[in-house]
Amino acid sequence: MPELSTDILIVGAGPSGMMAAIAAARSGKRVAVCDQMAQPGRKLLATGGGRCNLTNTLDNARLMAAFGPEGFFMRPALAEMDGLGLRRFFSALGVPTHSPDGIHVFPVSESAQDVLDALMREMAQLGVSVLPKTRVRSLRLEGRALKGVELEAGVLDAPSVIIATGGKSYPELGATGHGYVLAHAVGHSIAPPVPALVPLIAEETWPRDCAGVVLNDADLWVSMPQRGHRFRQGARGELLFTHRGISGPAALDLSRHVSWLLTDHPSVPIRIDITPDRDVRAWTALIDDWQRVHGRKMVRTLLDSYLPGSLAAVICTLAGIRPDAQPAEVTRPQRQALAELVTGLPLTITATEGFGKAMVTRGGVRLKGVDPATLESRTVKGLFFAGEVLDLDGPCGGYNLTWAFSSGWLAGKAAGEGQ
Fold first, then answer.
1. What pLDDT score does 229 carry?
2. Does residue 2 belong to any structural domain of this protein?
3. Are residues 188 and 229 in the same domain?
4. What is the DSSP string of 79-100?
5. In the predicted model, is pLDDT for residue 3 greater than 60?
6. Any bridge partners for residue 9, and if so which?
7. What average pLDDT score do residues 206-226 get?
8. Nearest alpha-carbon partner for 338 in 288, 295, 270
9. Distances in Å between the alpha carbon of 398 and those of 199, 246, 319, 374?
10. Which element (helix H / strand E) includes 128?
């Protein structure tokens, strides 16, 4: 280690950790970043399929709402560095951004590597010490005040420490949940972590017959009793059928809630509206019209005009309709079943594909133990948190990376100004 002490130590060299380092170093403090991986920012390189969906164009109110009831916790961080501020920040570092669809924001180069390189250059110019392959074993306290950390290689004195270790998603990229251990050891409560933004595994076997089928616009929802209340959540967007169940943005967004429900239930029933812009009454009228106008065509062929072929076959089977049946041969109960299946196809989720396939983690350091105005611990003076290690997660589309960057900025700035 180049020093045995530093003003601010950041644990974790992901997006939130690097942002915290830059904000803290700009305050004139000595800053060091330690990371258990050999290279910083490996998970950042994987974001957005390597394109790095930095943020989105939503205003702060809508962005916070996407995180659920706890989204208001983000308000101070977004006041310091919101999506527009992030775009200006990276532009100043030589990484201009654009929004091809008007919502999602990427670097113009479409390269996550450019984002990482810019952050690394800025840290180097500010004199930030980066300590790779360095694991923090524990936090050192004197009463309720932080004094530094114990590393596997020795002791490092630091009156301020920012835990930015991420969650447990993509463990091969360095997210092992170690930050939860450090926080819990000094008195913080941890909401049990579960995989989020992760593919879902179904009990039914029919999805394998549709593996590879993509629905550009599907509406998914879960509605079931949970802890004395009726829990209902939904997600809409692109859906991909897999050999084991479902994936794609809509399924990943819904997985945030399904993973949590699976901690209390062996399975979670969901429904899929394959054609969200055509309700069950419209489908019933359409199928009745088939009887009058297309009496000699097969129902399966007619359904193929609206749905992918393999999915149409599955739905006919589930409705009890023969593959070669003509509309005139279909009974009214079968027609009703067909309309209800297209607008609410049932699927039973029994598991997720786990942290190894999860983009983020739901759960973590409970927010009640952290001051949202500074992200400083309410338990230990000088201890701060940033990013995914906190119990706050959002949907796909730049939400979580916005939180990582903005929380890192606030924590770094507050640590720097607090000394």
1. 79
2. no
3. no
4. HHS-HHHHHHHHHHTT--EE-T
5. no
6. 32, 161
7. 94
8. 288
9. 18, 21, 39, 23
10. none
- Rounded mean pLDDT of 116-136? 96
At residue 88, does pLDDT exceed 90? yes
Q: What is the largest CA-CA distance in the chain?
A: 84
- Are both 188 and 218 inside the same structural domain? no
Query: What is the Cα–Cα distance from 86 to 410, expressed in whole angstroms?
Result: 12
Q: How far from chain centre, in Å, is Cα 134?
A: 27
What pLDDT is attached to residue 4? 83
Distance between CA atoms of residues 315 and 338, nearest Å: 7
Cβ(408)–Cβ(15) below 8 Å: yes
Read off the pLDDT of each residue in 113-131 and give the average, rounded to a whole number: 97
Domain count across the chain: 2
Q: In this model, does residue 55 exceed pLDDT 50?
A: yes
Do residues 150 and 138 touch, judged by C-beta distance below 8 A?
yes
Q: In what order do the strands lie in the sheet with 129-131?
A: 129-131, 31-34, 8-11, 160-163, 383-385, 376-377, 370-371
Question: The sheet that has 136-142: what strands, in order across it?
Answer: 136-142, 145-151, 154-157
Closest CA to 54 of 2, 111, 120, 129: 111
What does the pLDDT read at residue 414?
A: 98
Q: Burial, 390: exposed, middle or buried (Cβ in 10 Å; 0-12, 13-18, 19+)?
A: buried
The tokens describing 404, both together, are 């990582």
Residue 188 maps to a domain: yes
The CATH number of the domain holding residue 84 is: 3.50.50.60
What distance in Å separates the CA atoms of residue 237 and residue 249, rounded to the nearest whole number?
A: 6
- Structural contact between residues 412 and 161, judged by C-beta atoms closer than 8 angstroms: no
Segments forming the whole domain that contains residue 262 = 199-353
Assess whether 57 and 204 both reside in one domain. Answer: no
Cα 42 to Cα 47, 92, 171, 300, distances in angstroms? 9, 23, 11, 47
Asked if 366 and 344 sit in the same domain, the reply is no
Q: Tell me the DSSP string of 326-350.
A: -GGGS-HHHHHHHHHHHHSEEEEEE
Q: How do residues 41-51 score in pLDDT, each as one tens digit? A: 988 998 888 89
Burial class (CB in 10 A: 0-12, 13-18, 19+), 116: buried
Q: Looking at residue 419, what is its pLDDT?
A: 65
For range 128-136, the mean pLDDT: 95
pLDDT at 291: 86
